[in-house]
Amino acid sequence: MRPVSIIGIGCTKFGERWDSSLRDLVAETGIMAIEDAHVSGEEIDALYVGNMSAGRFVEQEHIGALIADCAGLSRLHIPSTRVEAACASGGLALRQALLAVASGHQDIVIAAGVEKMTDVSSGAAADALAAAADREWECFFGATFPALYAMMARLHMRRYGTTQEELAEVAVKNHHHGSMNPLAQYRMEVTVDDVLSSPMVADPLHVLDCSPISDGAAAVVLAPAEKASRYAEVPIRIIGSAQASDTLALHDRRDLTTLDATVHAARKAYDQAGITPSQIDLAEVHDCFTIAEILAIEDLGFFEKGAGGRAIEDGLTTLDGPLPINTSGGLKACGHPVGATGIKQAYEIALQLRGEAGSRQVDDAEIGLAHNVGGSGGTAIVHILSR
Amino acid sequence: MMTMKTKAPRFWRCIPQRYNLIGTHCAACDEYYFPPRSVCPNCRRDARIEEYKFKGTGTVITHTTIYSGTDDFERQTPYNLAIIKLDEGPRLTGQVVAPPGEVKIGMHVRPVFRILGKEGERGIIYYGTKFIPVEG
Q: What CATH number is associated with residue B76?
């Protein structure tokens, strides 16, 4: 396998994009990434797109061909493939594109992600998302995603003394980071009191513990590392990429307060990169709920199991802390158009490593990690990026 | 989107274990499975799988109270959901019928047969197992 670099990045504004269709979002981000990479259409060998549920959200399938068409590439007849791993669809698209280039099969490949979620009611959106859980043995009995993560939170609180205030601090931090990101869905700051006084969704998770329903798209352009400097001033190397799976239903897991898929994917990615967790300068982790960020920073090896909540409360993961987490605002504040999230995470890390993150720039960032989860942990995908 | 449905619903299938807690037991390794598995992950080809009806009693491992549900469950809110460990070992997800705040980790529960949901006012009714606290 040969080394691969990111030579171009693009991301739309996330949020309730009433003015834009799924097609508009794809075209917008595709053009950004292609222009950033300085590649011509003729050079592009393939497209991969992460998309969870266009069939449910906009009643459109066959997203592979659609995005090639929208990006103006239909006359080139290049292969375009849609991949799906629920909320990890974007991370999966990046990984498939990476494998295509690393194998030597293709040279210039675009990995994109898109979700247009606000064309349906919030109840219909919640039901579409619930399809990422075990429909027959969880959802049939009334489970929702907030409920599954709430049950993980309850047990984490019981075992490790994690508090609702510590959960709230995740939202406070990520909204603070989001306030500095022009692409974020939410630019406003929130306080611990705001989170704790917001309506309860699934006890102990409040509305402000949950990531929103969002529209958005993101794309990155990959090339063999040996050719990357022809296109990009600062190519970003992908030095680790791993994917792991686990039981679909939460209740079947070995441990309800650990995402074993994250643990396994992270271990493999660190091995490939030849680094330890302590060498990571910043990370985008899958904070679909505040508890999910606490689980992630433990399972990725940044903090001991059970110590995640205190690490957040002690400010260890803020922009000016030793390990900034979710500088984009995370899923919580930047927004979570599910298929786009995994690509947006790679976008944010690449932007930071290029030194182009503006007021939220992390000083001297050399190595960053992106962590994308599908469902309640049935899939986890970890990428490690380096300048 | 759709409010009235007269289609054959995706859960309108013959799933006996929905109405009784029927799973399987591997006589080779003495492991119990719910929902039933026909291949034992421990023994694979050496497995001796037999049908097993669970007692249904179990313990709450973790729980939540849902205040905002999907369209199908919205009118049942608030309701309690829990991960329950059956006495024989397997875990499952189910509702616990009790006032919010009364469900506790470690609480003993037993199964009851209940309506789980309806597809709209005149739609198909789904039945299945819920749990209630065991007295005392």
A: 2.40.50.840
